[in-house]
Amino acid sequence: MATTSTTSDHLSLSFKDHRRLAVLLSIFSAALVAANLIGSKVTVILGVSVSVGIFAYPLTFLITDIVSEVHGRKWAQNFVWGGLIAQLLVLVLILIALAMPASERFAIEAEYQEVFKQSARIIAASLTAFLVSQSLDVWVFHKIKERAKGRFLWLRNNLSTILSQLVDTMLFMYLAFWHAFPKMTTGFV
């Protein structure tokens, strides 16, 4: 990037930096919303039951690490808040859509309700897990960066992501699936 900024230097970004941040925020939000919408489906990978949202969600941690490294902690935390707002908006829109009466011509209302009620539950659980884990990711990334005096990028990326994904997965699985799959969730957590 042409201009690197400190955590308090938001106004010195070039147009190119703003455009790159907009693209990253778009990918971040799309991955987050996709993970929540598809997350109610559970599959088995190597004998472990997991949400199919695991294919989209890790992108969010990668993006906050990139933003943290290049633009600082405040920008990364702003992405977390932006993601939270995106999730809240999607949740509200889903709840409104579920509450609206269906046309007589809409033959799959029961299926629509079933799928989107699950998505609403997933998003509601994800809100808590997301805010805690992404904030933890940003915090751990910067603590390691401070202690390592800016060195060991690979260590910052991996440790912050592993720790925050573990916290996210445990919180999310418990909140999202406790009532739906109590045996699976208890065994997992």
Distinctive features:
72% helix; 189 residues; globular; disordered N terminus; single chain
| Strands, count | 2
Count of discrete alpha- or pi-helical segments spanning 4 or more residues: 6
Q: What amount of the residues lies in strands?
A: under 5%
* Coarse structural class: mainly alpha
Characterize the largest beta sheet: strand count, sense, and whether it forms a barrel.
Answer: 2 strands, antiparallel
* Rg, nearest Å: 19 Å
User: Portion of residues in helices?
Assistant: over 70%
Could you spell the SSE succession in H and E letters? HEEHHHHH
Q: Strand order of the main beta sheet, please?
A: 1-2
Number of domains: 1
User: Which oligomeric form is depicted?
Assistant: single chain
Terminal Cα span? 41 Å
The stretches of 5 or more residues where confidence is low (pLDDT under 50) are 1-9
- Label the overall shape: globular
Average pLDDT, all residues: 85
Task: Give a quick rundown of the structure.
With 189 residues, the chain is mostly helical. It contains six helices and two strands. Helix 1 crosses helix 3 (73-99).
